[in-house]
Design goal:
- One of its GO terms (biological process) is fatty acid beta-oxidation.
- Pfam families: ECH_1 (PF00378).
- The protein has 252 residues and is of the alpha/beta class.
- Helix content is 50%, strand content 16%.
- Strands 1-2-3-5-7-10 form a six-stranded mixed beta sheet, with helices on both faces. A four-stranded mixed beta sheet has the order 4-6-8-9.
- α1 (26-41) runs parallel beside α3 and α5 (138-148) packs across α6.
Length: 252
């Protein structure tokens, strides 16, 4: 489900490995949360979060989510928020190595990293929740606004737009583009350069720069709006999600 790969300079790569599309089911969310929290405790000075070449993560495992009752759905989203909170509050820098397509939950995770390197070319990224019948909760909208600004975030989120790598880079949604084969390498190189700075000064400055993010995401215990769960079980959302699953099964 995860590959933990050491790199020089006390950098650890946490690679999602749940074929075929790294869909975020409860087990993968828990594994990511634990691995990201444990890495600094085990001596990592920087973390690269990656996926398979060509696909970072397809986002939430919708078929699995639709099998859960209300308590299960609420538990899942609380766990996903906790995962995002671990990335946001990491005591060491995190780079999202967006190794390919990254819709919805995959894109959400990348918002909390210090830096985003995306595969150049045909690959797309975006928070397309509206297109699949889900609203975007305010704490996630805040994280998006923090990266691309208020107006651009509004336009992207309300339409559920997926953009290609060049557009994502132009918008500031990702910081750098690389060939799909070089995304992880460039992520490691960026971290290596950052970690050459005097560590106390760098980490203190980083903490100040990310204080706004921590003010919202430092404690995710009550961050999920119960209204989001109500929306999930609304007829409109359920119809759209079941239609999505039917299309996925037909393609398979």
């Amino acid at each position: 489900m995860l590959d933990i790969l050491p790199h020089d300079g006390d950098i650890v790569e946490i690679r999602m490995a749940r074929p075929p599309v790294n869909a975020l089911n409860t087990a993968l969310v828990h594994a990511l949360r634990d691995a990201l929290a444990d890495a600094p405790k085990n001596g990592a000075r920087g973390i690269v979060l990656s996926g398979a070449q060509g696909l970072f993560s397809a986002g939430v495992d919708v078929p699995a989510l639709l099998q859960l009752d209300r308590a299960g759905v609420q538990g899942y989203w609380n766990d996903f928020f906790a995962l995002c909170g671990v990335i946001a509050s990491s005591p060491v820098p995190v780079v999202a190595a967006v190794t390919g397509h990254s819709p919805a939950g995959g894109a959400v995770m990348s918002l909390f990293a210090d830096y985003r390197v995306m595969a150049h070319g045909m690959y797309k990224i975006g928070l397309n929740e509206v297109q699949v019948g889900l609203s975007v909760p305010e704490p996630i909208q805040f994280a998006m606004r923090r990266i691309v600004g208020n107006y651009r975030a509004e336009r992207l989120l309300v339409a559920g737009t997926m953009v290609d790598a060049d557009t994502a880079h132009a918008l500031g949604l990702v910081d750098e583009l690389a060939t799909v084969e070089q995304v992880v390498q460039r992520s490691v190189q960026w971290l290596t350069e950052l970690l050459k700075a005097p560590p106390k000064a760098m980490l203190r400055t980083r903490a100040i720069a990310r204080a706004d993010l921590l003010a919202v995401w430092g404690d995710t215990t009550n961050l999920l709006d119960p209204g989001f769960i109500d929306d999930f079980f609304a007829d409109e959302t359920q119809q759209v999600l079941h239609a999505l699953v039917a299309r996925l099964k037909a393609k398979a």
